[in-house]
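Hi support team,

I've been running sequence recovery on a batch of backbones for a student project. Most finish fine, but this one hangs at about 90% for roughly twenty minutes before it completes. I'm not sure whether the input is malformed or the queue is just slow. I've pasted the structure tokens below so you can try to reproduce it. Let me know if you need the job ID as well.

Thanks,
M.K.
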């Protein structure tokens, strides 16, 4: 028997690439083609390797799962445990759907075959074991249905959330930063002196511009200690733009958020484009979205222009 490894690699590369692109579409993620291609190549390489006897142990559940995680990490990055697990779940659901479709179509098109000892033999040489435990079918069917329901709900939640996502551009002097923001109707944070609305962003977006000691204070929610650092650190170009905005934390007393006065903030939402000049950029030391969907909370007043 002659095995054409190049054709096997190419076929699996295209199938894995299509499944990864579908995963990105379901998860509402921007897929970078070079990362999708690299992940698909890993999956295709796995199929080629298991054809060689020395790599026969690759055909185990643990190794299969490790390769699938490696593919997901390569295609979409990490972005947190919850985000990665959701990506893996969607990836497997789509794989099951594709595999089920292929097997179902093949079975539907068969016109003849034989059953021998519980095995269905077809003319194409493909066979299916029909002697499966009822308990196995019940458990796996329930698990597959639960996984599909979880993925479906997650996708619907992402779709609803997508209605409130916008592209944000922050301009300060010659610096420009881009991110995705969520229009937060519950955000009522203003600078109490000037009544300027505050848009909250992850401090990581400006980490290359802020001194390391300031970032540590922001991440540890000890911004009030920065007052003693201002003037003692290396020269900071935006020092005149700094503001301390008081706010009340959850189950805590009054805290302070470090904010910067930008030159302009541009928000693009669907067909609407808003340019705001009266706005402060408040910096949060953590992640605003567990799965990295957005990196800013847009004050609803800004959408009114």
């Amino acid at each position: 028997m002659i095995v054409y490894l190049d054709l096997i690699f190419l076929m699996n590369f295209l199938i894995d690439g299509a499944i990864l692109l579908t995963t990105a579409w379901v998860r509402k993620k921007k897929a970078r083609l070079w990362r999708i291609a690299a992940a698909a190549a890993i999956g295709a390489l796995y199929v080629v390797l298991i054809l060689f006897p020395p790599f026969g142990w690759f055909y185990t559940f643990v190794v299969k799962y490790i390769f699938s995680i490696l593919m997901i990490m390569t295609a979409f990055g990490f972005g947190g445990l919850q985000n990665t697990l959701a990506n893996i779940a969607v990836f497997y659901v789509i794989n099951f759907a594709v595999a089920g479709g292929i097997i179902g179509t093949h079975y539907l098109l068969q016109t003849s075959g034989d059953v021998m000892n519980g095995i269905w033999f077809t003319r194409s040489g493909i066979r299916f074991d029909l002697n499966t435990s009822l308990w196995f079918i019940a458990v796996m069917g329930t698990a597959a249905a639960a996984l599909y329901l979880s993925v479906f709900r997650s996708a619907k939640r992402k779709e609803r959330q997508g209605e409130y996502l916008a592209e944000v551009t922050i301009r300060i002097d010659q610096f420009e930063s881009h991110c995705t923001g969520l229009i937060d109707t519950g955000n009522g944070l203003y600078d109490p002196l000037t009544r300027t609305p505050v848009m909250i962003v992850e401090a990581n977006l400006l980490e290359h511009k802020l001194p390391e000691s300031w970032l540590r204070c922001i991440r540890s929610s000890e911004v009030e200690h920065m007052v003693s650092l201002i003037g003692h650190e290396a020269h900071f170009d935006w020092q005149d733009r700094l503001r301390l905005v008081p706010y009340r934390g959850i189950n805590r007393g009054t805290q302070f958020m470090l904010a910067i006065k930008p030159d302009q903030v541009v928000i693009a939402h669907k067909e609407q484009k808003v340019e705001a000049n009266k706005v402060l950029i408040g910096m949060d030391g953590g992640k605003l979205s567990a799965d990295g969907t957005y990196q800013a909370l847009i004050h609803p007043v800004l959408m009114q222009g």
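--
Follow-up from support: It reproduced on our side and the slowdown came from queue contention, not your input. Confidence is low (pLDDT under 50) at residues 128-132. No action needed from you.
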